[in-house]
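Late entry, written up from scratch paper. The run itself happened at the end of the previous shift, but nothing got recorded in the book at the time, so transcribing now.
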Amino acid sequence: MRGKPQSKRKIKPDPKFNSLVIGKFINYIMRNGKKAMAQTIVYKSLDIISEKTKQDGLAVFNQAIKNVAPTLEVKGRRVGGANYQVPVVVSNERKQVLAFRWIIDAAKSRKGKAMSEKLADEIISASTNEGEAIKKRTNIHKMAESNRAFAHFAR
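Output as recorded:
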């Protein structure tokens, strides 16, 4: 039997921009409780973005998150002894989580630079609808589109 659902924790906005989205992103970057290191990485990458694009780094970051966030995903559903990949609409909170995760993973997979530079490059490419994170979103959308016939199994 399941217990009661975990209540959502209030996440504090980041100190520099006072943005909840950046605060959450810093928490996703953070490893082993080293928040100051994560903040340094994110703020450096936003500075690099504003240098390279000559635009506000926060605006480019928000555009990248919006571009990477998926609208559909597939979930496995067992019906009558067979497993089906059922396309479902993604909630706003999960869209943000997946966008963060894909951007960070794509940045980690790049080689030969500091994390802040890799992250900046990935955010810039995601804001222009390019890069690994956008490829990941496109693949998810293609899977959902190809399994559209099983949409009636969604509840």
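The chain has a mean pLDDT of 93.
(Scratch paper discarded after transcription.)
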